[in-house]
Amino acid sequence: MKKQLITTLFSLMYFSLSFAAKPTDLVLLLRVNPTDKTKIYDQFVKESVIGKDNYTNKKNMPNYHVTLGWIVNGKSDKNLEKMMKDELKAESPIDYFFGESGIYQVSPSCPKPTPNNKKCTRNAIVLFPEESTKAELKNINLKLTLLLKKYNQDYHTNFKMYADIIPENYTPHISLAATKRVLPKNREKAVVQLNDKIKDSSFKYTKVK
Fold first, then answer.
1. Number of domains, the chain
2. Backbone angles phi, psi at 103, to 5 degrees
3. Residue closest to 25 by CA, chosen among 81, 64, 104, 65
4. Does residue 3 lie within any of the structural domains?
5. Which residues form the signal peptide (predicted)?
6. 178 within domain boundaries
7. Cα 50 off chain centre by
8. CA-CA distances (angstroms) from residue 193 to 56, 101, 200?
9. Which domain holds residue 159?
10. Strands 26-31 and 174-178, how do they pair?
11. By three-state DSSP, how is residue 122 classified?
12. 78-89 vs 131-155: helix axis angle to the nearest 10?
């Protein structure tokens, strides 16, 4: 029992760190509401390859969300942090319609996920949005980016978004599991399985706010 408990705790810790930002980074995101968080798990993860390969249950479900901005060392400036958070809070909740599942690969630093590449921590199996939702989220990302640019000009600072979050590279998505937590032989199978589940499910969208 003790060994199992230690293993479980290690698994939880490892999973929680797999997408972790540096403590000084400012991550701006919209979260899936609690009810739909459970629905996503029950309908798309629980009985899937992802659920079997990746130690995930209702007690340690990922906090499903959409990242809209990720500012390097942004928390070092409290004025910037407050301004960006206030801007995001002013946005109305968004209906995130599921387009398809896929494997998201961080660009441009990680063209392919590899086990030994520590830079590839944000590679994941994800739910991409359908086109109108994608456009809405990309518009918010652009607004946050332009606001950051203006802040840098006004206050003579040089804060930057991570490369995969700038508008040219930004790909909105909801991560279901880090790619490295699913066996390589099962990754494509997981994507096919998820797309079949989305096609057959009446659960077509969630609200993020």
1. 1
2. -105, 115
3. 81
4. no
5. 1-20
6. yes
7. 16
8. 17, 9, 11
9. 28-201
10. unpaired
11. coil
12. 150
Structure tokens, 77: 């400036």
Categorise residue 89: left if φ over 0, alpha if ψ from -120 to 50, beta otherwise: alpha
Report the C-alpha gap between 106 and 114 in whole angstroms.
12
Q: 47 by DSSP, 3-state: which?
A: coil
pLDDT tens for residues 122-132? 789 999 999 99
Torsional class of 156: left (φ above 0), alpha (ψ -120 to 50), beta (otherwise): left
Please count the residues of the chain: 209
Give me the residue label for tokens 């079949």.
196
SS3 content of the chain, % helix, strand, coil (to 5): 45, 20, 35
The C-alpha atoms of residue 174 and residue 134 are separated, in whole angstroms, by: 11
Q: For residue 44, what are its two tokens?
A: 């798309």
- pLDDT, tens digit, for every residue of 37-91? 999 999 999 888 888 887 666 666 778 999 999 999 999 999 999 999 999 999 9
- Report the C-alpha gap between 19 and 8 in whole angstroms: 18
Amino acid letter, 85 = K
Residue 150 has pLDDT above 90, yes or no: yes
